[in-house]
Amino acid sequence: MFEFERSPGGVMLTRFRGEGVSRAAVPEIVEGLPVVRIAEEAFANVRGLREVMLPQTVQSLGRSVFYGCRDLEKAVLPDGLEVLPPSAFSYCGALREVRLPSRLKALCENAFWSCGNLENVSLPHGLRFIGGSAFHECFSLRSVFLPAAVRHVGVPAFDDCRSLRSIRVSEQNPFFTAPSGLLLGEGGRTLLCFPAGMETSNFTLPPNCVKLSRYAFCGNVHLRSITLPEGLSVLPEEVFRDCSGLEEVRLPSTLREIGEGAFRRCLRLHRLVLPEGLRVIGDSAFSACESLSNLRLPAGLQHLGEDVFSFCRPDVCLDQ
What we know:
Elements: E1 2-7, E2 10-16, E3 23-25, E4 29-30, E5 33-38, E6 51-53, E7 60-61, E8 74-76, E9 83-84, E10 97-99, E11 106-107, E12 129-130, E13 144-146, E14 152-153, E15 167-169, E16 176-177, E17 183-185, E18 190-193, E19 202-204, E20 211-212, E21 225-227, E22 234-235, E23 248-250, E24 257-258, E25 271-272, E26 280-281, E27 303-304
């Protein structure tokens, strides 16, 4: 069922061959040597496995170690593990429970990508790094608390988490704050995440928050109108993608660029005035904005990307 090979300091589990086995407990000792590593993709795409337990002797995991284990519901990891590798549990759609190690310092990119049934994750106190898209499409995730030690959150880290209503941050964390459930960085100047499940219909961004991260509002269906502050100059890519309830956006006069796909599939968006200082509109910026019409392009516009108004009404733009 388990395949091993020699590795510095002990042995490494290279592949699990237990197709159809529902519960697997990796042994601590093999031929008198401790199991210290689990290889890349060692359990990847195994069917039928519902629970896995790794021994305390394991010091490191390879990337994508449980990738595509669609039946996996529970994983017990060793306390001494310091890094959860990229795509460790990607596409483990049934995963409901995972106890992260107390010594974990880095949760790498795509770690829980598309774990649609994962409801709660307790981030350990010593965690410092959360990679990009770490919790992408964790549709059932309800709460997140960032401990004081976290100093890096990837962009995006919590995109398309439809049940996530708010984010909380330790008061002792010097890098991030979460007023009213929003995740802010850089001393409150950058909005990192407006949770997709936040049930706020009308929102005004704080005046000192003049930078938005990519995908910051992505997937929030509750938002109806938003006012952005003066001083904000860029709407980054996909920032409002799939905000299907968004009807009105009040843009600042300081806006200079609308990034690729910024308003893609904002199906109800119909009240929008582009400021005269706008210079760049990226590819597919307003793609599939079915309700948008009579939009006037500013005279000083220098770049209009490809497919900016694809799948829109014929009268979407007065200047086409």
